[in-house]
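Continuing the batch. This is chain 6 of the set; chains 1 through 5 are on the previous pages. Same settings as before, nothing changed between runs. Recording input and output for traceability.
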Amino acid sequence: MRVPYEYAIIQAVPRIERGELINVGVVLYCQRRDFLAARTDFREDRLLAVDPGADVPAIGAALTSWNATCGGAGAAADISQGERFRWLVAPRSTVLRAGPVHMGLAVDPSEELDRLVKLLVS
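Output for chain 6:
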């Protein structure tokens, strides 16, 4: 049985003033399956093609924090998965941001997340 889910593309924005970005991952939330996860495919060479001076370690660390937030680490431990997802996809002006939230239907949210990363990021 397919269930609804929400997802957003995780985008790296090395220089906010230029407005350039690259897709580096996907975050997916499925309330019915109690599932929240981010998967990334961060390619340093693609980032450096957009901005040769990009702070690669900082962007990598920020991606790690997205995964930790999905898992409920730190301050995220006290909030629900839905609240964590909404916090991650909220508009922000940082080196990582989420694109618009989209919806879909899937049997297995984890497999769907892998499919979306291959389709939209890799």
